[in-house]
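input
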Amino acid sequence: MKIIATAFLLAALVALFAGCGDSAPPKEKKGPTPMPDRVEIATFSGGCFWGVQELIREVPGVVTTQVGYTGGHLDNPHYDDTHDSASGHAEAVQVTFDPAKLSYEKLLNLFFKLHDPTTPNRQGNDKGTQYRSAIFYHSEEQRLTAEKVKAEVDKSGKWKKPVVTEIVPAAKWWPAEEYHQDYLQKHPGGYTCHYWRD
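output
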């Protein structure tokens, strides 16, 4: 009998207070970050694209990042086509950034800090032309900035060997397969040979 009375009491309380939350303001839904009025694109490669993307993605001023293949001779390449260097493509990262918050020069300086630009076609254990150090410029202004930053890094004495980073025009961009996108977000602690160097 006490169980039935308790059940009726709970039902009455639920009915009485069912509308109490209706007057509370709705919670604001957090949507995607709005696209800035003006953005620029930067493209570069420096070893396995997983690590490059992971380090660059959190830099203030970076809007989006995407990993893909560029600089080769095969249309619509897949990972297997590029992994043995046969297609000529580099594993690269394309960065959309807000130039009001992050200059191209600053972005390039960061690029030179996240990989070794003195080892042609190699980063750590990764060997092959697909892992080459390269800047793919999208304008004459980017080319001039890239040449300037490369020369400054080379003269800085930070590296014992010459900087060999290629500076070449941006070529056709082919997004990598979905499982490569944001790989280290999906697989925390996964393989990478990248880290910030002072």
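quick obs: The two ends are 75 Å apart (CA to CA).
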